Amino acid sequence: MPEAYPHGLKTLTPGNTIVEALNILGPGFRLVPLDGSSPYVRPKAAMYDFNGKERRWDVVESHSSVGVILYHRELDAWVIVRQFRPAVYATLLREAEAAGKPKPPFSAAFTYELCAGLIDKSKSNAEICQEEILEECGFRVPLEGIREVAVGIASAGTQGSPHIMYYAEASGGWRLAVDSSMAVAGAGGGLVGHGECIEVLALPFHHCQPFVLDGSLPKSPGLMFGLTWAYFNKLNGSLGGRPAAAKEEAEAANGNPLLTEELTLRPVLPA
Amino acid sequence: MPEAYPHGLKTLTPGNTIVEALNILGPGFRLVPLDGSSPYVRPKAAMYDFNGKERRWDVVESHSSVGVILYHRELDAWVIVRQFRPAVYATLLREAEAAGKPKPPFSAAFTYELCAGLIDKSKSNAEICQEEILEECGFRVPLEGIREVAVGIASAGTQGSPHIMYYAEASGGWRLAVDSSMAVAGAGGGLVGHGECIEVLALPFHHCQPFVLDGSLPKSPGLMFGLTWAYFNKLNGSLGGRPAAAKEEAEAANGNPLLTEELTLRPVLPA
């Protein structure tokens, strides 16, 4: 399934890829009425007065969240995640049915996103980011290296929940025995037993904009903003250094060897 | 209410501003259970098989939409909209209640967004963009000047609906008798009688990034991506020309006179 890795994308989670996920997914997919007891989707009607008349606007309560723009120095790549999103598939299915077209493949509903998490713990946002970077992507990054960038309001029309975006860098190299940014073999990826299958991907630095602008790849607006902002700020030198120019030239000629060789990942998380 | 216009924002819709909207809003705001018949918010449970087990993911059906990154040449400014979003207020209210804080002001729920609209007509997306630019912002832009930039998936976790983003430029100047980009006095802004009050704002070109990164101002991720992408591409010269350098220098020294004088707007829409 080579088309699953366009724009130089390289999986960082062998054993937990879109290929594996597609093998354990389906075939059944159906939508049933919600019984009203969902902890995730709580529809309400907001009633308010406007110009002397009562107005109604239907809303959905949802959680606030954090997202992390993650750059890996030795890989000279953005670290992003991809997972199956039932809501995206439901939309594609509805559109296909309306147009009289066949069911779309599940692969069309694997969405590219920033490493992210809900703000539903009594921890600081930076701590939640740190935890998500470790759990989803398998990198330990220092708390002081996580800085707030901006805040987006997700689906202002219906949800209106803040999505707070952070920037962090992983570093230390893949092959050092002891460092602060080792990847976890087979981790990142969430818990398959919990119905999660999150693939972690490295996107080479300079492939950022062709990837973001490729409308055929489903991705979150948070990722689109975050990568675009960080790409131009890194180009301008206002967001820390990138790998040395010599390495960059070699990479332009030959590709980053860390991104083309097989990666050897070492577990650092407790089993 | 000077704090309503930070980062050099200038209203383009006198008579339809946040000040007016706040005067006709409230005081009542309450959330009631949704009766299940909403055409806007349709919660469902998606049932699917993953790793041999049946999984459930709660989703909300919603419409696909278009958004337009709009740059006005003579103003050398981004044209964006701001409106009261009940879903944003409901979230702020819930958070304030959970934290034992007083009710937030309504002004905190006026969200900055791209000119946008739902894809719910039998027209091309470019035609819907053209219509929204005229109805919401009061500019006539030629269809061939509207080009697709990128696609974001809104709220992949719960909604998963495509938000297709376009770029367009308005031009012609404010004071020409006949042109293709006149603003409509008091228009833009939607229909107050329908409970809408959309303020159209000009954001000076170079205030783009401080504005986008100001976490105290609620704004959509689509706007954040769109303005950031267009800003850097215009700086790089890869997105058409900006006003002549001489004008730019004068502006840096004195501000753009079109953005500091009172604007005289002429109606072009049918009454």
Automatic annotation (TrEMBL), chains A, B:
Biological process per Gene Ontology, one example term: nucleoside phosphate metabolic process
InterPro entries associated with the record: NUDIX_hydrolase-like_dom_sf
GO molecular function terms listed in the Swiss-Prot or TrEMBL record: hydrolase activity
Matches recorded under CDD domains: NUDIX_UGPPase_Nudt14
Alphabetic keyword roster: Hydrolase
Signal peptide extent: none
UniProt keyword tRNA-binding, yes or no: no
Protein name (Swiss-Prot/TrEMBL): Nudix hydrolase domain-containing protein
Organism expressing this protein natively: Gonium pectorale (Green alga)
